[in-house]
Amino acid sequence: MDKDYLDILHRKLQMWSVSFAPGLTDEEVSQIEARYGFRFPPDLRAFLQYALPISSSWVNWRDDAEEKIRSRLDWPAEGICFDIQHNDFWMDTFGPKPADLEEAFRIARQAVANAPRLIPILSHRYLPDEPNLAGNPVFSVYQTDIIHYGYDLASYFANEFRIDPEKLPDHYLPCPEWAAKSPHPIRFWDQFL
Fold first, then answer.
1. pLDDT tens digits, 129-160
2. Which of 32, 129, 146, 178 is the Cys-Cys partner for 38 at CB 3.0 to 4.6 Å?
3. What is 3-192's CATH number?
């Protein structure tokens, strides 16, 4: 990510009362990725290494308890299981729906485990780890109600925090080079859109 973009984004998020700690180090990033089994795409990694958001609803990758982070990582699968149980949800790609609820949960969780990992950003907003490139879409994930909340991190921040990337007051924030003009296709998760 461009440092000028990060400087302005950081200031704008602080105006929205987002608190920050020093950014993650390379060693911390490697430990997080090894512990939780994913790789941060380069744009999310650059954002988290510039300054780590620690306000409520953000993931504090440095200080949150492991079970809290794992719960956030499990949220998409748990939401699908909730809808299987309570809303008769089933995807054709899962195969025939078993009568046994626990078996249905196992099949759904396996499908999610085989899909790109969704990395929590803020609340129920997630960025897929695959492909490991800048410009992946940000998903809003609430059970099986899954939508694009941004074509990429730049449009996500613009949507979530009402940041016009071209017309910030008193600042010019050019659209980053990595910004997507439309969402990249994401295996498995695009089926919910």
1. 999 999 999 999 999 999 999 999 988 998 88
2. 129
3. 3.40.1580
Q: What is the pLDDT of residues 65-92, one digit of tens each?
A: 999 999 999 999 999 999 999 999 999 9
3-state secondary structure of 77: helix
Domain ranges in the chain? Answer: 3-192
Quote the strand ranges of the chain, DSSP E: 20-22, 51-53, 118-122, 125-128, 138-142, 145-150
pTM of this structure: 0.91
Buried b (16+ CB within 10 A) or exposed e, 159-185: bbeebebeeeeeeebeebebbbeebee
Sign for the CA dihedral angle at 59, 150, 132, 5 comes to negative
